[in-house]
Design brief:
The chain is of the alpha+beta class. Helices cover 37% and strands 18% of the residues. Bound molecules: flavin-adenine dinucleotide (FAD). The site of flavin-adenine dinucleotide (FAD) has 39 residues, from helix 1, strand 2, strand 12 and helix 9.
């Protein structure tokens, strides 16, 4: 008799653990199949979480009730808020992680989730009957049945690694590839293709001349990713610095010598690589006018003697990597622990999934993470939690979760994948979001915690706390609009800061619009009534509220414009298109428009508008057709 689960998750990577956690918290029994149960959420590449736009995703995963932010907080060895000199829309939290501790912490957390059974095995075939998934065949365990299956197999599907002209099968350094899954899905009618990614060499810590390198410490007052991290104990671990160095022309010359043996240039690698995270050999060719490229030396952990050379991802022959690195400042005597390599793997072009991440071909089958063509831990985890919630929602009879583009980067990510598909590794950038002033890292809970709560991933006390904070924010904005500060009180301060003085009185909100003035600075001058003074003190003591109010006041005009744009487009987003609509019958559509609409089957006119090849006249035709 085979074992039966509500949800089977294939792969215990960043997507897989989020999917398993979400499914279990929603009451489903979950089998988490993974090749190595001690390697859950292993960091295949850089020992870091977050960064530009990725940090936003981590905060969103946390607001939905996911695991990544908490694990990163407990194992981070350097925390920084990136892009501080720019506007708050692009501020992005990032941490350097202790690679070993990160995975160990993930194993601890997942092993404690009551309804998750971790099965150490290799999934070899996904089965479906009558268009519905029925279960999975595991190498040792045999068949297990499931109402839903979530595939989050990362870079392992028919994985092949390359260094110079040598190549060997594997999903990641020292780990076996996953064989059989792609073939079973192709048999079920899915289309698969190849992508590639790469990783830099790891260096021996003691062999680096640290004294001559530029140090990059973390923030003086680091902030955690998770809303649930107890700030009193944060950061949990001692904090380390990263260091900066650069390539130079001598390095480039040596690397060029290896091009004839580069699997990238000899055509050995067929998969398309990440355009935005190119290998060093790619950078030299594409930016041939640049005499140097910046590199970061990042610690892999507190007790680790390995250093990650960020920016030097390569699959050139190991001897060439070694020789070139020794021409880099600070690395003159470097010893290489492991050369860089590239990995090629199968993925499923993501037009084959719906906005819930359920596949269009097989009911109950979901794809999440690298298998959808993305690259990055955070992109994978964001998809994992959405797939987990939707798989469980279907089983428990809850409504599906489709996060909109104007609600979260997670919504942008999934909409981009489904609507535009991708033929190169997709990573998140702030520029991909059209409403980025609204989708800030600081307000992820205000945007998404309600979903986490509705689906049972967030507890009531956290939800109540947010609602209380919302009331205080509304009250504070009104207070700042209505409370005035007189010239008599503030002008001395303004002139001491060489700022223009005010004539008579000015509302706090107006003063706050000045880029040089901070809200906490202005609130010090509230002195009209005892009640006002007390309220100003309350705000000064509540950093989270203060930050939200300040951004709201400073960027009021821009925020309003984005909100107007959202409501203008809302009518398109809310005009649903039935999934049964047969576009081939609508002769008035353009040929390309008809093909694209038929392939993607958009859920709304808004989504149809974002399809390349669908013209405005196609949309007009569609609107008339739907009306009739
Ligand atoms: C060499 C390399 C370099 C990379 N470089 C970068 C980079 O520079 N920047 C970046 O953002 N990202 C990079 N990545 C990608 C990053 O590691 C992934 O985006 C991320 O880990 C994807 O998460 P995931 O959950 O989809 O899969 P993974 O983290 O890969 O996890 C997949 C899990 O599934 C398990 N598994 C797979 N198949 C099966 C099966 N059939 N049965 C049982 N278990 C299975 C594996 O054991 C593994 O635990 C790199 C990856 C590699 C391998």
């Amino acid at each position: 008799m085979s074992k039966r689960f509500d949800i089977i998750v294939i792969g215990g990577g960043h997507a897989g653990i989020e999917a398993a956690n979400a499914g279990a918290l929603m009451g489903c029994s979950v089998a988490l199949i993974t090749m190595d149960k001690h390697a859950l959420a292993r960091m295949s590449c850089n020992p870091a979480i977050g960064g530009t736009a990725k940090g936003h995703l981590v905060r969103e995963i946390d607001a939905l009730g996911g695991l990544m932010a908490g694990i990163a907080d407990r194992t981070g060895i350097q925390f920084r808020m990136l892009n501080r000199s720019k506007g708050p829309a692009v501020w992005s939290p990032r941490c350097q992680s202790d690679r070993k501790l990160y995975s160990e912490e993930a194993c601890q957390v997942v092993s404690k989730i009551k309804k998750v059974e971790i099965i150490e095995d290799s999934a070899e075939e996904i089965l479906a009957e009558g268009g519905k998934v029925s279960g999975v065949i595991l190498k040792n365990t045999g068949f297990i049945s499931g109402a839903s299956v979530i595939l989050s197999a990362g870079t392992f599907l028919n994985g092949k690694m390359h260094t110079g002209l040598s190549s060997f099968v594997g999903g990641r350094y020292g780990e076996k590839p996953a064989l059989g899954i792609t073939e079973s899905l192709v048999k079920l009618g899915f289309e698969s293709s190849r992508l590639k990614t790469g990783t830099p060499p790891r260096l021996k810590k003691e062999s680096i001349n640290w004294d001559i390198l530029e140090e990059q410490p973390g923030d003086e007052n680091p902030k955690p990713f998770s809303y649930r991290t107890d700030i009193r104990h944060f950061p949990y671990l001692p904090q380390l610095s990263c260091f900066i160095t650069h390539t130079n022309e001598a390095v480039h010359k040596i690397l060029e010598r290896g091009f004839s043996e580069s699997p990238l240039f000899t055509g050995t690698i067929k998969g398309v690589g990440p355009r935005y995270c190119p290998s060093i050999e790619d950078k030299i060719v594409r930016f041939s006018d640049k005499p140097k490229h910046q590199l970061f030396l990042e610690p892999e952990g507190l007790d680790s003697d390995q250093i990650y050379l960020n920016g030097f991802s390569t699959s050139l022959p190991a001897e060439i990597q070694y020789e070139a690195m020794r021409k880099i400042r600070g690395l003159e005597n470097v010893e290489m622990v492991r050369p860089g390599y590239a990995v090629e793997y199968d993925y499923f072009p993501p037009h084959q999934v719906d906005l819930t991440l359920e596949t269009k071909k097989v009911q109950g089958l979901y794809f999440a993470g690298q298998v959808n063509g993305t690259s990055g831990y955070e992109e994978a985890a964001a998809q994992g939690i959405v797939a987990g919630i939707n798989a469980a929602a279907k089983i428990t009879g809850k409504p599906e979760l489709v996060i909109k583009r104007n609600e979260a980067y997670t919504g942008v990510l999934i909409d981009d994948l489904v609507t535009k598909s991708t033929d190169e590794p997709y990573r998140m950038f702030t520029s991909r979001a059209e409403y980025r002033l609204i989708l800030r890292q600081d307000n992820a809970d205000r945007r998404l915690l309600k979903y986490g709560y509705d689906y049972g991933l967030i507890d009531k006390s956290q939800y109540n706390e947010l609602n209380k904070r919302e009331l205080l924010i509304t009250k504070a904005v009104t207070f700042c609009n209505e409370t005035k500060i007189s010239a008599k009180v503030i002008n001395e301060h303004l002139s001491s800061r060489s700022l223009p003085e005010i004539d008579s009185t000015e509302a706090i909100s107006k003063l706050c619009k000045r880029p040089e003035l901070k809200l906490d600075e202005i609130l010090q001058f509230v002195n009209t009534t005892e009640e006002n003074k007390m309220f100003a003190t309350t705000l000064l003591e509540n950093e989270q509220v203060l930050e939200q109010v300040e951004i709201q006041l400073k960027y009021e005009g821009y925020l309003k414009r984005q909100e107007e744009m959202i409501s203008k487009l809302e009518k398109y987003e809310s005009t649903r298109i039935p999934s049964t609509l047969n576009y081939l019958d609508i002769k008035a559509l353009s040929t390309e428009g008809r093909e694209k609409l038929n392939k993607i089957k958009p859920r709304s006119i808004g989504q149809a508008l974002r399809l390349s090849g669908v013209t405005h006249s196609d949309i007009a035709v569609l609107l008339v057709y739907l009306k009739n």
